[in-house]
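Why do we care about 3D structure at all? Because function follows from shape, and shape follows, mostly, from sequence. That is the central idea of this module. The next example makes it concrete: a single protein chain, its amino acid sequence, and then its structure expressed as tokens.
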Amino acid sequence: MTLSFNSGQNIIKQVVQEVMQGIKMKNKKEFDGYRQSILKNIWFATTIATVIFFGALGTWLQVHHAEAEKRENMLQEVKLLAQTLNFDYLRILTGKEADTSLVEYQILKEQFSIYLRNNKKYRDLYLLGLNNDRKVFFLMDNDEKTPAMPGEVYKEASIKLRNVFSSSTSVIEGPLPDKWGTWVSALVSVNDPLSGKTIAVLGIDIDAYSWKWDVYKASIEPIIMTFSVLVIFLIIIRLYNRRSKLRGTSSRSIWNIEPILAAIIGLTLTLFFSHIAYYRISIDQSRSFKALAISKTANFAVKIFNLRDIELDGLANYYIGSENVSLDEFQKYTQFLLKSQFVQRWGWIQAVPYSDTTSLRHYVNKHELSSFRIWQKNSGSKPPTNTGLNECYPLLHIAPLNGNEHRLGFDFGSDSSYRKAMELAARSGLMTSSDLVNPESETDIQKELLMIFMPVYYNSEPRQLRGFAVAELNMESYLENADPDNTTSLEIFLLHKDSPPDLITKSNNSLFPQEPGLIETRPLFAFGKVFAVNVQSGPEYNKVQPIEASLLTALMGILLTSALAVLTGLTLQRREKLEQLVTQRTSALQESETNFRLFFENSPVGKSITGLDGSLKVNKSFCNIVGYTEEELITKTWDEITFPEDIAVKQEIIKSMLAGLIKVVRFETRFVHKNGSIVWTDLSTFLQRDLHGNPQFFITSINDITERKKAEEALEESRQ
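And the structure:
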């Protein structure tokens, strides 16, 4: 830039000298020559100023947009992180030093550490709380050098940060200094899904120097472009001046250089606008792909959360509500669960003292499977031996049963990889995932397995482990159906703190080029682990991306300025296609969520949800059993459809449940059908309570057993 600046100074100095010299001119002809020379140098100076102006404007715009895009991406990443947090863990944190001994705290801290180790651009990931004095304090901090302890007041908290708590929003601020350094921070409120209140703020920091360097790197291209145009322009001026001295050109020939200079201005503007167009298209492309990637990974996240909060938790609650569950009952319960492509197998692992293994085997052989035996990894036909846990953990039930009979009886405690996850689950009472484990059977198609364990305890004090509800994930099969149009390729990783990530599975790998296109990553905290889903653009997506739009813009800018409007129209059409594609993917996700909600409404078992105020929600099967429509049942009470002799029994049961004497109950009762007939049902119900133990609503299931009752009565009469 020194060359251009000095040259500009020389031109201005030359203009001033020629003006002063022209004033002294008495000959009109000589004055006209000097006037043309002055105009020529003014034109040169104006051209240089124009190039510098547009170069500076382009540089500023690019840096401004780069920083805005970087802030938006950082905030979006923290929002996705906040969505994956387990709210049950957060509710337990109090901001006191005693939190460090909680298993939930330790799991969250480990997950945060794993995330930071795999995202080295970030320095710190932390949780903040707000006390009654409006002081911001740390719930958890993961700074590797000097982490803040739970309860430590964050004295440098800004007004924007405090407003995140009150407004339940998100903000990115900085660079701002604190005692740890100078940072750019993204802060997102974490809201309780039940109350909607902000229970914490999730924050992530990036070093301000690193941030500025990344932003300023966006200025390199426009600066180089501006400098190059100036150099070319000054070289042309130098060549012109030299030619003028050698040839003694006339006043008319002085302006022969004007078309070249005009071409340079046109080239400058073309390069400027084509570069801006390329940059904007890249941003739009990145945003469109990011929206598509979020839609794709949202489906995976929903599967994870449904497994965590509904499916596996429901299977565990089924065992909690039933003292004895037979293999047939397990198969019936898991019929709907087997429709999920996300889980390959469901199972129940019984915790059995080694002294009771023989009696368990005899019981199962007599009542369920005659070929049942307890076996351990790499033990062949030898009897089970103590693995150091004082108990063995045989797989007692499995679904689907067909083709998996050989798995029954496998002692999961005999595999150290499973044992580590089971020990943590049993100690914490939390759902826990194993690492990738080699299958216990050589007949497995999958190379490695990922098992999720949910502990179940006896209703006794002190707490005694009964067993584990378990799910074996089938991510490979899930990904095969995740992207039928080949717009993207998905890779799922299991992240570690001190070792490279494990690739769990990937999709459509043979259809994509060796060099990846756009890539987005979504982290997921679940089951005590950290998963990462990579989304890579595929052939179908790349077809609708205006990759060469900048070259077309430059070409059309040189030939015809109006062609930019046509190119913009084409770009908007392409962008509209992408938006339609994102809309389709979002619609597919909504349809998937709707299908799950229909499980309650379309269950073959009569189901109802009854509020404490008597409000009633039932499914079709319930209506079919009692003969009333849902609208008719809303206007009725339970006593009105219950057989009179059974009303008192039900009322006593309800009182006992509300008093906390009974958690789950199952009994046979009678209803009065709309047509006046008596309907015998097998009824089971439990009372859902909130975190404080307050009753919320009853969830009831009924099966019509009228025909069975009639058969029993007929049999009894025939015996008499």
